[in-house]
Amino acid sequence: MSHPVSTEPVRIVRHADGVVELRLDAPERGNALDLATAEALRDTTAQVAADPGGAVLLRAAGGTFCVGGDLRAFAGRGEGTGAYVHAVATAAHAAIQVLHELPVPVVTAVRGAAAGGGVGLALVGDIVLAARSARFRLAYTDVGLTPDCGASWFLPRLVGRRLAADLILTNRVLTGDDAERWGLVSRSVDDEELDPAAHRTAAGLAAGAGDALRGAKGLLRGRAGHGLGRHLAEEARQIAALAEGREAQDRMASFLVARDRARTRQQPDTTQAT
């Protein structure tokens, strides 16, 4: 039986099998990270850290994992943009740091788009499952920004510097199957299998030899958490500085206009002749 214990836009669900689920729960916004969502993620992650159960499952409600920073919240703030983006990044980074340092295994389930900061959030898992139709795209440089949420720290360590540069600089899109081949994720699964497979994986870990799993995770992590903390601080500083600049402001505004136009074109024509 599951018991929701927190509120939107991020929820904690504690399962009877020892799995503690951290669920992004703002599907109508693509689980985008505005300040309220980033702070909710920080606060709920801290609650999970206080009692992580036997394994943590990170997933998202709806058809999208996380589209990254909420550009509508970033754009148009003028001189206040940098401070706002820095606050969002700092709150999200606190969550990333806590998830990275959890003593129990973390399983991430990625469905739909994982873009921008959503990529870093996805990759923080020890075991990452992706739906075959998932789409991974960094997208930062398209809007005049640099990576945050640990993306530029995780990627070189997962796929090497050359492939990481390709993903970050060209913003190429990887499917779930591509991400498995590249080494971004542990495995890709059929879309309808993602949620049950992710929960089975987390439940199996929660039922495993807890001390051994914690010890093994500690060996895998080593002292990397210290390096990540410094790296996250630099990511927050840099993305905030760029977000306040004219190029990023213009690019974010152009992106939003183009996206709105695309959505308008996709809407069915409901007018009728009289």
In short:
The chain is an alpha/beta fold and about 270 residues long. The chain has eleven helices and ten strands.
Radius of gyration over alpha carbons? 19 Å
CATH topology: 2-enoyl-CoA Hydratase, Chain A, domain 1
End-to-end distance: 55 Å
Q: What's the shape?
A: globular
**Helix-strand topology string:** EEEHEHHEEHEEHHEHEHHHH
As for the number of domains, it is 1
What share of the residues does DSSP label as strand, in percent?
15-25%
The total strand number stands at 10
Structural summary, described in words:
This protein has 274 residues and is an alpha/beta fold. It is 51% helix and 15% strand. Helix 1 links the parallel strand 3 (19-24) and strand 4 (55-60). The chain is globular, with a radius of gyration of 19 Å.
